[in-house]
Write a structure and sequence with these properties.
The complex is a heterodimer. Chain A is mostly beta strands. Chain A has no helices and 12 strands. Classes of the chains: A mainly beta, B mainly beta.
């Protein structure tokens, strides 16, 4: 079974600075997806960024980028130029590329990010 | 607008009662999922369904039941057998290899 580990329960960053959120995972599969989801106080889950394991290039979405290290099974999220609206809980998630019974998302326990003005 | 609607937003259950949480999607997605969120636990999978009239247990299915009679609907019943039902419940849907979309959640409290 796949597992996702987020070892830091909380982090804080100064507005306009850069912060990196860590995530590791364990799988025996070679092809899969990795995601970062944001959950603000409204509790709506919002997709931040997605990485496909077969792609060597790290995904980027505006101020958000990932450092995907497949051999190390590491998937960290970097937030540049942090804004007050980035304050939220962030979840790392794994999903098999299989579209059948293994297509469920497996989540880490999440990290609470606070942004200091 | 397409999306996933969960209702109600807040739900209160008395001891020994069954309650049903609603999840409706108009995205024409085949797959639907129910997750439970507790503080410090992340999201844990309760049940999921790949197609109509078929569903599978997730990691914490005990005390819950579901049905999938229509493509757009995937209600979750929290039965009296669930000993600690107070939690935040999230429904999601997905089509093929695309990312999952989530509803806004239902907060269930036992009173």
């Amino acid at each position: 079974a796949q597992t996702v580990t987020q070892s830091q329960p909380e982090m804080s960053v100064q507005e306009a600075e850069t912060v990196t959120l860590s995530c590791t995972y364990d799988t025996s599969e070679s092809d899969y997806y990795l995601f970062w989801y944001k959950q603000p106080p409204s509790r709506q889950m919002i997709l931040v960024i997605r990485q496909e394991a077969y792609k060597q290039q790290n995904a980027t979405e505006n101020r958000f980028s990932v450092n995907f290290q497949k051999a190390a099974k590491s998937f960290s999220l970097k937030i540049s130029d942090s804004q007050l609206g980035d304050a939220a809980m962030y979840f790392c998630a794994y999903r098999s590329r299989d579209t059948g019974a293994n297509s469920k998302l497996t989540f880490g326990k999440g990290i609470t990010l606070s942004v200091r003005p | 607008d397409g999306g996933i609607t969960q209702s109600p937003k807040y739900l209160f259950r008395k001891e020994g009662q069954n309650v049903t949480l609603s999840c409706e999607q108009n995205l024409n997605h085949d797959a639907m999922y129910w997750y439970r969120q507790d503080p410090g636990q992340g999201l844990r999978l309760i049940y999921y369904s790949q197609i109509v009239n078929d569903f599978q247990k997730g990691d914490i299915a005990e005390g819950y039941s579901v049905s999938r009679e229509k493509k757009e609907s995937f209600p979750l019943t929290v039965t009296s057998a669930q000993k600690n039902p107070t939690a935040f419940y999230l429904c999601a849907s997905k089509q093929g290899g695309a990312e999952a979309f989530f509803g806004q959640g239902t907060r269930l409290t036992v009173v």
